[in-house]
Each structure stands twice: as structure tokens, then as C-alpha cells.
Design a protein that fits this description.
Blueprint (H helix, E strand, L loop, with lengths): L29 H13 L6 E2 H9 L5 H13 L3 E6 L2 E6 L1 H17 L10 E6 L6 H13 L3 E4 L2 E4 L5 H10 L4 E6 L18 H15 L3 H5 L5 H15 L2 H4 L14 H14 L1 H13 L14 H6 L18
Protein name: PaaX family transcriptional regulator
Pfam families: PaaX, PaaX_C, PaaX_M
Length: 332
């Protein structure tokens, strides 16, 4: 099954050029919004929601009916969603693989943006060389390196401040068998001003700028959330947007060592702000999603369950039963 999220949602396919920052900070893709919505309210239960309910919820986030139906169809073809029919009605739920992927991904997002682990001052470098006629293989390798938190210091030389795990090492070996080499060590200082520091593989100013955009966008909402003045569709829309935006930060800023970053690095303030909005809107958003889904089912409990950042860190495994909800179009 394809990952519910593509690396291109965060980094555009830039060919042989140096890595660029996200092409989207707002106006997220219909597929991304659909996956975030379903994950936020059904990843525990894997409840099947009527397609009309999914379309209605996406419409509240500005997705057209045609765009919503196209997103659902594409996610189904990718194995992210499973479809079923009952009479004339169709319903969709997260596939088991997608639910597990999203649960692990959500846990990774929260743990990756927590306090930075201690750094030993060493760098892991991944060097590879692939012929021009293996562009698909090269693109897949770059994509995996990005997900693993690496950045290109030079063409064909990617770095990270942290150890390459055994599963990641095995994966990279499969993607570029016989054409990849991994080293770990300290940088040797050169007696020249032309030396490039490894941290320069990341555009620190641009990453900081994205954090600042996030902080400016969401900080004014916190008093309204705490006073209960964000409800209904607005609560769902804000919660979806804040998750869909925040989940990009672990790729942009993969636990970069604080000692290499400017003072008052905004990673922790952004995480605290995300938790304040996401957790604070969990109850009103769940109520609204339940109400929307209830309009499209005859009876039964819809299997809608919101979760908090604490739940995500613990791990939302999708072990709960969806019960008999969405009986009118439940997946078989």
C-alpha cells in the first residue's frame, strides 16, 4: 500500500536541484484533508463513513463535491481507503494498513517535535551514485532519505546528525544495492573560509520562517478555544488544518540539535501551540463530526472518536471495535 502521504506534499519533486521548502503552507490537497479527517476521528475504530458524509465534511473545509469524490476515489485506488456498498449507498473506511501507518505516523510527529535528544557531535553521511537512466530509483532513494530526516549537503551526499537505524539501513540497501555507502564521524575543520558547515544542508532561516507563520496563524485562536467559542464546523476545520500543517515540521526540522540552531528556536513553542489547539478542539469537533455523519445513516452509533496529543504519543492502534455504527453502509 502506498503511504497515505507523499513526500511531494512536503517537498516538490526538484529533480537534481537542491532541496526546497514546502510549496504549500495553506490550501492543503483534498486527499491530505480527507486522510487527516478520517484519521482524526476514525483511526481507532476504522468505522466506515458514508461517502456523502465524507463529502459534506470536506465541503466544510472548502473542498468541492467533485474534488472530494475524486480524492476518495484516488485514496481507494491507493489502498488507503476501503469501499463498500449497501443498496445505493457507498461507504469508506481506512484500510488496516493505512490505520496502522497513520497511528505510527502521528506518534512519530509528536515524539519528533518533543525535546531534542542529546547529540554526540557526529554526523551520519549517506553517499550514493546512480546512473541518469535510473531516475525513478534515485527519486525513491531521495524520498526515503528525506523521510528519515536527511538533507543533501552536496549532490549524492546526504547527512543527518543522528545514527541510521538498522531498518533504515536495510531499506536504503534495497533501494540502491551496491551504490550506497554510510559513514559516521565528526566534521574536520579546514583552514579556509570556503568550508560549508553540515547544518547548512538545511535552510535554517526558511524553516524558522515556517515556524513563525504557524505561530502567528494559530496563537490568536487559543483564547477562543479555551473559552469554548470555537464550535461546530469551525472546530473541525481548524483542527484539521492545524494537524495538516504541523505534521510537516518533523520533515522540515528533523530534531536538529539545538546547539547548532539560533537561540529561542521555535520548535517547542510550535508544539505547545499545536497541542493547545488540537486538544482544545477535540470535544466540539467530535460532536460536529458525529452530527454530520448521523445525517447520512439510519441508526446506530457512528464510531467517531477524537483523540488528543497524549493519545497520539501513547499510540492510537485502531484496536477499538466500530460496533454496529454506520449499519446502512458499513464495510463488510
Amino acid at each position: 500500500m502506498a503511504s497515505p502521504f507523499d513526500i511531494e506534499e512536503i517537498y516538490p519533486d526538484d529533480g537534481e536541484h537542491s532541496l526546497r521548502l514546502p510549496r504549500r503552507q495553506a490550501g492543503n490537497s483534498p486527499q491530505g484533508v480527507a486522510v487527516t479527517l478520517l484519521a482524526d476521528y476514525t483511526v481507532r475504530t476504522r468505522a466506515a463513513l458514508p461517502s456523502a458524509a465524507i463529502v459534506a465534511l470536506l465541503a466544510e473545509s472548502g473542498v468541492t463535491t467533485a474534488g472530494a469524490r475524486t480524492a476518495i476515489s484516488r485514496l481507494s485506488r491507493r489502498g488507503v481507503l476501503e469501499g463498500s456498498r449497501h443498496g445505493r449507498r457507498s461507504s469508506y473506511r481506512l484500510s488496516r494498513a493505512a490505520a496502522a501507518n497513520l497511528s505510527a505516523g502521528a506518534q512519530w510527529i509528536l515524539t519528533s517535535t518533543a525535546a531534542t535528544t542529546s547529540w554526540d557531535g557526529c554526523w551520519t553521511t549517506v553517499a550514493f551514485s546512480l546512473p541518469q537512466d535510473r531516475s525513478a530509483q534515485r527519486r525513491a532513494l531521495r524520498g526515503q532519505l528525506r523521510w528519515l530526516g536527511y538533507a543533501p549537503l552536496y549532490d549524492g551526499l546526504w547527512i543527518s546528525p543522528y545514527e541510521l537505524t538498522s531498518p533504515a539501513r536495510e531499506l536504503l540497501g534495497q533501494l540502491a544495492a551496491g551504490r550506497v555507502t554510510v559513514f559516521r564521524g565528526r566534521q574536520s575543520a579546514l583552514d579556509t573560509t570556503s568550508q560549508r558547515a553540515p547544518i547548512e544542508a538545511w535552510d535554517i532561516d526558511a524553516i524558522s520562517g515556517h515556524y513563525e507563520v504557524f505561530l502567528r496563524r494559530w496563537t490568536p485562536l487559543v483564547p477562543l478555544v479555551r473559552s469554548g467559542r470555537v464550535d461546530g464546523a469551525a472546530a473541525v476545520r481548524a483542527r484539521t488544518e492545524v494537524m495538516d500543517t504541523f505534521r510537516r515540521f518533523p520533515i522540515l526540522d528533523p530534531r536538529l540539535p539545538l546547539e547548532l540552531l539560533p537561540a529561542r528556536w521555535p520548535r517547542q513553542p510550535a508544539r505547545e501551540l499545536f497541542a493547545a489547539v488540537y486538544d482544545g478542539l477535540a470535544e466540539p469537533a467530535e460532536r460536529h463530526v458525529r452530527a454530520v455523519v448521523a445525517r447520512f445513516i439510519d441508526s446506530g452509533e457512528p464510531g467517531v472518536r477524537a483523540h488528543t496529543t497524549t493519545d497520539l504519543v501513547t499510540g492510537v492502534r485502531g484496536d477499538e471495535s466500530p460496533g454496529e455504527g454506520c449499519r446502512d453502509g458499513a464495510a463488510g
